[in-house]
Amino acid sequence: METVTGISASPGIAIGTVFIHTHDAPAVPRYAVSADSVDAEMERFREAARNAVAELEELRRNGAQEIDEDKLAILDSHLLMLRDTAFHDQVERGISESLVNVEWVLYQSVQLLVDKLNSSQSEDLRQRSSDLHDVCNRVLSHLMNRKRFSLADLEDEIVLVAHDLLPSDAIAMNKRKVRGIATDAGGRTSHTAIIARSFEIPAVLGLSYVSRMAENGDTIIIDSNHGRVILDPDQKTLDDYERQSRAWHQHEVQLMRLHDLPAETRDGKLISLKANIEVPEEVESVITHGGDGVGLYRSEFLFLGSRGLPSEEEQFDAYRRVLEALPSKPVTIRTLDLGGDKVAHEIADLDEQNPILGWRAIRFCLSNPDVFRSQLRALLRSSVCGNLNIMFPMISGLEELQQALEFLEEVERELKAEGKPVKKDLPVGIMIEVPSAAMVSDILARKTSFFSVGTNDLIQYTIAVDRGNERIAHLYEPFHPGVLRMLKLVVDNGHAAGIPVAMCGEMAADPLATVLLVGLGYDELSMSAGGIAEVKQIIRAISVREAEEVVGEAMELDSFREVDRYLRHLMGDRFGLETA
Ligand code: PEP
Ligand code: MG
């Protein structure tokens, strides 16, 4: 039995069997073949291609009811490629000219084509390269007897262990089969953590070496309530955790009783508790957890799949689905926040030296007018389907905000000229997540309908600590006096200008921070739906006056550690909150 400690990323306890996930594709072998073996190599290729065709046809047959038309079209294009005689001829020529094995010839010729397509000006041709890759990998997996694997194909219930999990992996995985997650890398506010919370999968990240310590099939316990992972537990530990897991579920059931009650302080202030979502399907859990709406829909997850840029229609459809599912509740959709750890290679080359400070979010959109315009068109068109708010991410100052607003106005004029309806007086707000924006929030407040503070980035940029780097995770301090002063400045400036101020970073979900945030005057807290009930319970037990006193005391303290200690005592004594 071995215990490893890391960073609690998504609460809960999971017990299960280790499944190691790696991104590394096994190396493609290269060896010489004699002229006499060319036919035999070619036969191996034909057989692998036949198997790949059979596999695709089966996928098509079995999935026809569940897979949408676009996905079917992709499967069809892969089938066409596999049956293309020119493709077969090219591989045959390659083997006889170079006298090397078929795997290598296939891999090399596809690589050459992919490079050519990627350098093309045509978006369509560039997108074809990922299809080629896909087909090549499928045939290679048959040639090398390797099982192709995607986390969407998980069949057994497992605990996912990986060095790191890409946000696109996390979004694609079969959530019903993943009981828990443990990774070497990542921090509490990395996007993998955020997705795990959204899907309510217990997760501990930042474990350094867990992917090398664990082996497929091992028993593992994820205890995210204490930020620990136990490998190969003994029977006594297992029994103990089975008990804890049952108690945890009972606690969750208790909290669900608050579902229909408002998040109202004892002296009558209503705080709006909303949910953060990444995909339209999550809207179900906003309803089951009693969310007052969606405070942050991270629209970029629509762009993170392997399909590249979604069309205006696809985007419209996703936004419409969320808005229609919550007919009487506000839904804040954030425009594209690609970049940082959310990379979509199919869309742009975002390989940068310093991506966190790089071509991210609104910066990316303002220099990709077609991408931005198509999203704004989809958003404005969806405005008539519900109660939409639009929000721009990573605004750093007035010029950026003005440019974004000009884009929006231009698109609105365009749609009106086309006779498409757009809702009047749509609230348009911004995220405050760059320190410069917080410092000039008095100026920005005059130009926007609301603020929403993104503490995940605001803390990262204020303390200069990469939110996804487990080595410096101990420096990521939400209660740093520098951060608290900024949080106060933003809410004060917003209120002075008469606009509501929300928080949609992970700090909004931290029960340790709730009293402080109410005392500072935040009007809305938005978080993964699973966290709403716990925060609501605290809000219902305090008064604004009491919360303001807490702020008064906390703001007098000199260091993160002192504020943290003060809040832990307070929440422990007052609410019996057990903090790791
Ligand atoms: C934030 O930065 O706090 C935020 C909510 O945005 P994201 O986590 O998607 O960067
Ligand atoms: Mg952010």
Give descriptors for this structure.
Glucose Oxidase, domain 1; eight-stranded mixed β-sheet; Enzyme I, Chain A, domain 2; binds magnesium ion; globular; 22 helices; 580 residues; eight-stranded parallel β-barrel; alpha/beta; binds phosphoenolpyruvate; 3 domains
How would you characterize this protein structure?
The structure is a single chain. With 580 residues, the chain is of the alpha/beta class. The chain folds into three domains: 2-23 and 151-253, Phosphohistidine domain (Glucose Oxidase, domain 1, 3-Layer(bba) Sandwich); 35-143, Orthogonal Bundle (Enzyme I, Chain A, domain 2), CATH 1.10.274; 263-575, Phosphoenolpyruvate-binding domains (TIM Barrel, Alpha-Beta Barrel), CATH 3.20.20.60. The protein has 22 helices and 16 strands. It has helices at residues 38-63, 69-83, 85-98, 102-118, 123-143, 167-172, 191-198, 210-213, 235-256, 283-288, 312-325, 361-366, 369-382, 398-417, 435-439, 441-445, 455-463, 481-496, 514-520, 532-541, 544-556, 560-575; strands spanning 2-5, 7-10, 13-21, 158-162, 178-183, 203-205, 219-223, 228-231, 272-277, 294-298, 330-334, 387-392, 428-432, 451-453, 501-503, 524-527. The strands form two sheets. The protein has an eight-stranded mixed beta sheet with strand order 1-8-7-3-4-5-6-2. β7 and β8 form a beta hairpin. The radius of gyration is 26 Å and the shape is globular. The site of phosphoenolpyruvate has 11 residues, from β10 and α17.
